[in-house]
Amino acid sequence: MIDNAFHDEIDAALKCVAPSWPLQNTVAVNPFWYMKDRSFNEALSSLESATHAPLVWPLDHYLKDLEGGRISEAALERALADESKVSSAPIPETIDELIEASRNEIHAEAGHPTTLILSCAEAFVFEKQWGETIINECGKHAAAYFDRRQAIAGLPSARNNEGFFESWKQEISFDRSMDFFGLTGLRDCAREFVGASSREAIAAMLHELAIHSHTERVLYMQRLITTVIGWATHFRFHEWQAELTNTATHIQTEDLLAVRMIYDLACFRAANEMKQRRPEIDMAIAHWKKSLQAELHTLSLRRIWLRAAEYSFQNTAAVLLQGFTSSQASLPASGSPSFPELTTNASGEENPWMHVVFCIDVRSELLRRHLELSDSGIETSGFAGFFGMPVGYQKSTEARETSRLPALLAPAFHLEESAVCSHSYDLRARTFTESYFRNLRKAPISSFLFVELFGILALGRVLRRNLTNLRRLFGIRVLPQRFRDHGFDHTDPYQRAGIPHADRVQLAENALRHMGMRRFAPLIVLAGHGSVTANNAFGSSLDCGACGGHSGDINARLLASLLNDRDIRASLAERSMSIPDETVFVAAVHETVTDEIYLLDNKSSSARERDLVKRAQEVFAKASLAARKERQVSRTRRPTALPHRRAHDWSEVRPEWGLAGNAGFIAAPRSRTRGVNLNGRFFLHDYDWRYDTDFQTLRLILTAPMVVASWINLQYYASTVAPQVYGAGNKTIHNPVGEFGVVEGNGGDLRVGLPLQSVHDGERFVHEPLRLSVFIEAPLEEIERIINQNEAVRQLVDGEWLHLLVIDESGAIKRREAHIFETVPGPG
């Protein structure tokens, strides 16, 4: 009988699975998102038991950091004291005892490697390598189920909106693959559940396996689902989208769990036929529990070191933010010395001639700093890269509308691209033709003849590409193809979509208010960001997370069109938000591989505007060159190709480092960070609480940008500490599957997270896995009020999924620990 407790067990087991987005719009995801109701320490202890993967860096790494000065003794003492308050296991009392205990653990782990056991049954039949075969089989069936017009003959069950469990039962009735591998009883197992739902089947299998206690059931199901966690995340993505749009879906993660359990049940029965009975399985469970106790103790030591590394990072950052706000200071990059060097820096002018609004992405920090250093008349600020435009956007060359806003939100408006004038050709017809030829290239027979028959048609593209490369070689800046308007009109698509004037005014007002824009320079550049790479399945992971895994050029164009509209400006003036007539907004895009800034749609109407644009382009070119030189060595000392070459090289596995190194988030006035070299490790959101009278902007920052930054941070964290589980593996052996994911080699589990090359330079990891340290300059009581009113934010803060630090009016920085704020010292 299925009761509420059983449903709770399945839900608890599946909390270890977060959604993952398709390759077309890869969004950085916190892989522990559904476990945020537990503390960081509790969740990681549970997941280490389920995955047999270390979720904190090894102890020997932290010992090296202590010797190298990256972890200070003061931070280590503080971490020991804080961990003693929350740890149920005994921990060392002094630094010397901690070092000795850590070295003992390293020697113990080296002498007694952990045996990888993921299920009761497989513990007895692993010599047949059924575990790997089962994962491949699950992947084969899942790939066929999610196929959307890639295969010549798809599954009828997938087209008929049947669940995966029902679809698999139909397929397995005639699929004899496992018979070949010796698991002849699989199809008999499947037939027993022909009329059962996935949950009914799971309940029956747990009963037959004699796994009765709540803890063992949850752990058993977690271990099985994490063997196919990549495919599970894709199931979860469909559930997420259905919940976000308030629609029903037949795709359920529990269906995959039921299928995976049937394979395991068949293994269990095969083990019984081999005269290996239940007492031996009980011994295996006892072995797991014994090994888990040792792992939990090791984790408690690693937690201390992780906390100490985070405190050291915070203490160094605190010095820069408190005492040297008028100086050029440097935060260490990964692998750099612990303490900063300081040099002088000029502050900005009272009346800047240009204001550039960047996304808060950590890659913009470096470019913002070089822009301000190159010209004291330039002001920069950071804002969420979708620029407050909550839209779904339908491009003429794309089959479906794409959401150009954070994945946490649903689009409020739906817009379509519109042609400026009639073309000499129909772009949609051209797109259809290109799609037709791409399909011919993939088909089984035509693929062998494609080059001979149609290769000549690629001549024009080859010539254009070579001409573009020659222009770049001679220093001529060429706007990348993906950012061009292709003859389409981006001016005020809101009006064309029939969106009322009042709503458009409200969008513009909200954007300006939350940006904190109180004075208007003659030229205001709205710079979204995007990445240009070649032959890169994970290319969208380098785009803007705030834009739903797309480049930010569309959003920048949308806001610029609103703010340049005279009627909108007149209505804003009635709301006491006057934009000077001489101010012009220009959309731009920061191409993150080359650090070039390209102005978009800059058809200036006056000589004055043309002069401003020309001056801006000159400054951008100078700052981009300086940024490229610094970024070239900011993450690794290994020699790399020039950025422009990396962007277009089909063999390049590391076109850029993306957000590697991210560790902090700052919401404060730019005066707090201007001139400080934060080494691309902070998300920078401009915010001045003195002008936020109702603290709605503060609420927005804590509930949206901070959460998105935490997602990014924890994805990089997980992909670094446990790349075999939460990483996407090796790019050089990736094979795309269904245009929504990749596998390594010719099958197996879907690989999610970040590829190894995104966090590792071939010799060492370039990302330091630290939880996000969030610095907010705002009143303590308002921050606490917002935290307590938002459950997700409260869980992240109270559960220590991130660190919250507050900058008070005096500039002192206080860290929130168990609802108490304590002053953060400098590095010692």
UniProtKB/TrEMBL annotation:
Keywords on record: Cell membrane, Membrane, Metal-binding, Transport, Zinc
Cellular component GO terms, alphabetical: plasma membrane
Membrane topology annotation: Peripheral membrane protein
One example GO MF annotation: zinc ion binding
Record-linked InterPro entries: DabA
PANTHER family reported in the protein's UniProt record: INORGANIC CARBON TRANSPORTER SUBUNIT DABA-RELATED, UPF0753 PROTEIN AQ_863
Name this polypeptide is given: Probable inorganic carbon transporter subunit DabA
